[in-house]
């Protein structure tokens, strides 16, 4: 299995980023591919996990080893596959997810695509008290209560916002959910990555 890949950031799509290394382009599925936009054409390191099944061979990648560890914990839960785990991690803050698990906040967990009450309960049963090796003790508690600012409304349309909507659709959010939050997203001087993060915070507050 690949521990990490060090290479140049090439193509970026709604579901994946391509890392070029020694003439080979590795297509790597990742929670928020546009987080690598600022590094396009530059060398970076992406931490990887190779997922093998009878019908699929896929490479998943993460900006940090912490994200990768959390991904591995999530896919160990019955009812959570790689796509579901990516959607949970796309919020960009593993400690926020860990906090929800530790305080048994099922309502928070069910806001992610594909996570119903039964799956949320399974996540809590399987992972509560078992995530100290992912996030140092105390960090999850510090994340509780952190407010995330979302810019005000605007009716402008931008390529970056369109890319963000496509990325969120790829994670499993419905067209109805996205139409509801789109008017609340600002479009002045935000990157695709920032739109995704703001949109996720809105989706989790609904």
Fold and architecture overview:
With about 210 residues, the protein is of the alpha+beta class. The chain folds into 3 domains: about 5-60, Beta Barrel (OB fold (Dihydrolipoamide Acetyltransferase, E2P)); about 65-145, DNA polymerase, domain 1 (Orthogonal Bundle); about 160-205, Helicase, Ruva Protein, domain 3 (Orthogonal Bundle). Helix content is about 40%, strand content about 20%. It is built from 9 helices and 5 strands; from the N terminus they run E-E-E-E-E-H-H-H-H-H-H-H-H-H. The protein has a 5-stranded antiparallel beta sheet, covered by helices on one side. The radius of gyration is 17 Å and the shape is globular. The N and C termini lie far apart (about 40 Å). Belongs to the RuvA family.
Share in β-strands:
15-25%
Radius of gyration: 17 Å
Give the tally of structural domains. Answer: 3
Instruction: Write the H/E string, N to C.
Output: EEEEEHHHHHHHHH
User: Strand tally, please?
Assistant: 5
Question: Uncertain segments of ≥5 residues (pLDDT<50)?
Answer: 137-156
Which superfamily, in CATH terms, is the homologous superfamily of the largest domain?
5' to 3' exonuclease, C-terminal subdomain
Shape: globular
CATH top level label of the largest domain: Mainly Alpha
- What is the terminal separation in angstroms? 39 Å
- CATH architecture descriptor of the largest domain: Orthogonal Bundle
Q: Tell me the major beta sheet.
A: 5 strands, antiparallel
User: In percent, how helical is the residue content?
Assistant: 25-40%
Number of helices: 9
Structural class: alpha+beta
């Amino acid at each position: 299995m690949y521990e990490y890949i060090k290479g140049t950031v090439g193509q970026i799509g709604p579901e994946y980023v391509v890392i070029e290394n020694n003439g080979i382009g590795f297509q790597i599925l990742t929670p928020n591919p546009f987080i690598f936009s600022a590094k396009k054409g530059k060398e970076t390191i992406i931490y990887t996990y190779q997922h093998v099944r009878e019908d699929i061979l896929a490479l998943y990648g993460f900006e940090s080893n912490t994200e990768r560890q959390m991904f591995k914990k999530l896919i160990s839960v019955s009812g959570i596959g790689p796509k579901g785990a990516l959607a949970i991690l796309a919020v960009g803050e593993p400690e926020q997810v860990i906090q929800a698990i530790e305080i048994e906040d099922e309502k928070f967990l069910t806001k992610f695509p594909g996570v119903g009450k039964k799956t949320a309960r399974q996540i809590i049963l399987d992972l509560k008290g078992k995530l100290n090796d992912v996030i140092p003790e105390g960090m999850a508690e510090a994340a509780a209560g952190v407010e995330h600012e979302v810019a005000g409304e605007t009716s402008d349309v931008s390529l970056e916002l369109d890319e963000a909507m496509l990325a969120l659709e790829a994670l499993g959010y419905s067209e109805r959910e996205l139409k509801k939050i789109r008017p609340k997203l600002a479009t002045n001087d935000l990157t695709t990555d920032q739109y995704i993060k703001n949109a996720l915070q809105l989706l989790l507050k609904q």
